[in-house]
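worker-03 picked up job from queue 'complexes'. Input manifest follows; two sequence lines, order preserved.
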Amino acid sequence: MDEDYLFAATQTHHTMMGRAIVKETTLEEFIKNPNAGNEPELLEIKAGKDIKKERTENVTLWTEHEIGNHHWGLSIDLNSCIGCGACVVACTAENNVSVVGKDEVRRSREMHWMRIDRYYSSDADPKEHQSGDNALMEIPSDMPKVVYQPVMCQHCNHAPCETVCPVIATSHSSEGLNQMTYNRCVGTRYCANNCPYKVRRFNWFQYSDNKDFDFNTNNDLGKMVLNPDVVVRSRGVMEKCSMCVQRIQEGKLNAKKEGRQVKEGEVNTACAQTCPTQAITFGDYNRKDSAINTMWKPEERSYHLLGELNVQPNVFYQTKVRNVEEVAEVHTKGAEKHS
Amino acid sequence: MAKRIYGVFDDEEALMHAIPLLKEKGVVCKDVQSPFPIHGIESLIGVPRTRISIASFLYGLTGTSFALWMTWYMMIYDWPINIGGKPNMMFYMNLPAFIPVTFELTVFCAAHGMAITFLLRSKLLPGVTAPIPHPRITDDKFILHVDVKDESKVNDVAALIKSEGASDVLLKSMQFS
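worker-03 finished. Artifact:
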């Protein structure tokens, strides 16, 4: 066995390098302080002579735009996520996301609109490696703790991707959605470079209709599987999670035809619908009684991914709480049995 | 109607020397055509300073105003778009983003307006034959345009020009056929 094989993997790093990308805490800590592990980033603001501390998301230089009748958002509970990947499959099926094959994945050209990040814990202490030697922090523990983090477009209200597009191919809707205008996109890929979450995908070849990428969408029979409600993107165009805008639109139009408001739960994204543990919740911030509104508790577990950037995402996460004591108990009991 | 005749000179030195002398004698020198630019000839024949820079400024101003109006109309008034949450309620808020457009349109209008004005004033447009009194002004001859008010004096003026150093005087232009 003296052969090399190049794996096709979408994630090639294993630890969070000592940064709190995924926020987590233990049950003990959480009972003591519901905000444990989710201490907010505070900015020092000068108000007259006093200096007050303000949460980053409350600080802005800009006059805010008006949000329309709806304000869509997603909540992702990292405590419930088991990293099964059903949401990724559902998203791929719903949104006609191209399958690109091993070779393209090796070149980091996967087209998935959402991904599940997996991070292992590391034994290395980040404080010891501030001098610049980060190599140890890249090595996960022998018995690592694992976190899964589904990441899709965060639909930032202050989206860095939108400001850099030279042709306004990506702009914000009045309902808080970060929209792509595919036929306006000229493929500069500035947006993907400016996205802090790396959720934008560039269509390098017309994967959907290309004899070199024979993954069933390039023949007549395979094309019948495509979702007719979602456009098939072409080559040279940036694409990303639309928060299932076709479903939102359908729900709104049905409600309009019947002359009523969109009901809570009437519209759902493919990922939220599919999640077996209901870790993903979709909803309308503008409804007072919506699940997503009651779930947004920044004083408890809710936080924005990379919140210190203050890009004001419409997607928020819930801290992962580990019951480490129970785990320790099981371990000691098991050890007693064996002895 | 004045009759135009053309003095043909062999070199620019002779031409420059002749013009002030002819003017002293009341000959109306209107223009000079030469194979290359002669320094100082404008002031000798009394060509006024060009006004194309004024025209250019006005065209540039038109471009600036058009660009400012256009960006305001498109991006603020008619179809405002929320781009990355940046405020676009008032024109001044987005003005920095519109500076490149404004600059480009200013330069575009100034340059094109200037070029078109120059061509119109020179009576040169695509398809128009350039008035060339003598084919050799593109090679080695220098032509002095002289207007004679009284047609009966054409021959006298011609003789005068010849006496001041012209090698020949054309009584009508020799066009290319």
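worker-03 released lock.
Strands of chain B lie at 3-9, 28-33, 142-148, 168-170.
Chain B has five helices and four strands.
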